[in-house]
Design brief:
This protein is mainly α and 331 residues long. It has a single domain, classed as Up-down Bundle (Rhopdopsin 7-helix transmembrane proteins). The strands form 2 sheets. Strands 3-5-4 form a 3-stranded mixed sheet. A two-stranded antiparallel sheet has the order 1-2. Helix 3 packs antiparallel against helix 4. The termini are far apart. The chain binds retinal (RET). The site of retinal (RET) has 18 residues, from helix 3, helix 4, helix 5, helix 6 and helix 7.
Length: 331
């Protein structure tokens, strides 16, 4: 029952009341219909207790930043698409993944720029102690949908480059999905009271554990696997994995300062995540596509059956229903 203590108001002061007035339809002035009754319509007023609710939200700066990042992803996607169609089908593995990552990021930024994927989460604002001000901070949850799809794809690129076993690759990807979902849980937990704050940071801790698991597997098993590859591939994997790890470490820090402890504005949050997203997606895919070389026996050379439509005639594939319908017995 200890958590109930959190809900008690800090002082027994009378609850402040607010008066709101609503304009009746057609306005409150009397001359607009030329004649008629001409009397004053009663102003409907209502009095009810309401704590002051303050919204912490993005401004013009943040919204412009979202559009700029959307433009960067769109412009960055075009050369990747060109490169993809110009590359031989069997060697398009990394191209395909990269194009997908950039497309998802572009769509997610378009959604956020146009006001989609946003909610308000009640938070405790540490600046105002013991007052009845309530705060709600804007949460751009669309980025978690983006991350849910793009981070596994980025990790798939890294794991494939190292030639990591399918079992370990699956473990990395599942840990990543777990990290993003528990991170979202942390972000959406209302933390107006201490119990909520504890829950939010609890989810943050669980998510961080998954984050460490991903990188543990990638560095230990990934490096073992990369040792079996040519020197240049091993070098590229080590470089990309190290850079990606450092970059990804910044995400929980930005989270802690924004969604977590509300220390920076929503605009600053948008810009910080934006810089990281551009580096982690555009920077990563461009480095990978320009630095890796194809190798016929490499683990990333796609099999023919994946990229070519199968040859041959054989049965027409309609099965029993097909043959029933083809007797020509329709009246
Ligand atoms: C959260 C919050 C909880 C703790 C941790 C997090 C990590 C997020 C990461 C995101 C990476 C995103 C990328 C996006 C696009 O390119 C969920 C912020 C550890 C690592 C790379």
């Amino acid at each position: 029952m200890e958590f109930l203590a959190d809900f008690r108001p800090t002082s027994i002061a009378p609850i402040p009341t607010t008066t709101i007035s609503v304009d009746p339809p057609g306005g409150t002035h009397t001359h607009h219909h030329g004649g008629g009754g001409g009397g004053h319509l009663p102003l409907p007023t209502e009095t009810f207790p309401t704590p002051d609710l303050h919204y912490i939200h993005s401004t013009h700066t943040g919204q412009t930043a979202l559009w700029v990042i959307f433009a960067l992803f769109t412009i960055g996607l075009i050369p990747v698409l060109f490169l993809t169609v110009r590359t031989e089908k069997r060697n398009r593995y990394f191209h395909g993944i990269s194009a997908l990552v950039l497309t998802i990021a572009m769509i997610s930024y378009l959604a956020m720029s146009t006001g989609l994927g946003i909610s308000y989460i009640p938070i405790h604002h540490h600046g105002v102690k013991g007052s009845l001000h309530h705060f709600a901070r804007q949460l751009y949850w669309a980025r978690y949908v983006d991350w849910l799809f793009t981070t596994p794809l980025l990790l798939l690129s890294l794991a494939s480059l190292a030639g990591l076993s399918p079992a370990s690759t699956l473990a990395v990807i599942l840990s990543d999905v777990f990290m993003i979902i528990t991170g979202l849980f942390s972000a959406v937990t209302p933390s107006r009271w201490a119990s909520g704050e504890r829950a939010a940071w609890g989810w943050f801790g669980i998510s961080t554990f998954a984050f460490l698991l991903i990188w543990g597997i990638l560095f230990i098993n990934g490096l073992q696997a990369a040792n079996k590859r040519p020197r240049s591939t091993k070098g590229l994997f080590t470089l990309l994995a190290a850079m990606t790890f450092i970059l990804w470490c910044a995400y929980p820090i930005v989270f802690g300062l924004s969604e977590g402890a509300n220390k920076i504005s929503v605009d600053a949050e948008i810009i910080a995540y934006g810089v990281l997203d551009v580096a982690a997606k555009l920077g990563f895919t461009y480095l990978l596509l320009f630095l890796h070389t194809h190798e016929e026996t490499g683990p990333w050379t796609l099999p023919d059956w994946w990229v070519e439509s199968p040859e041959g005639h054989g049965p027409d594939g309609r099965g029993i229903y097909g043959s029933l319908g083809s007797r020509g017995d329709r009246d």
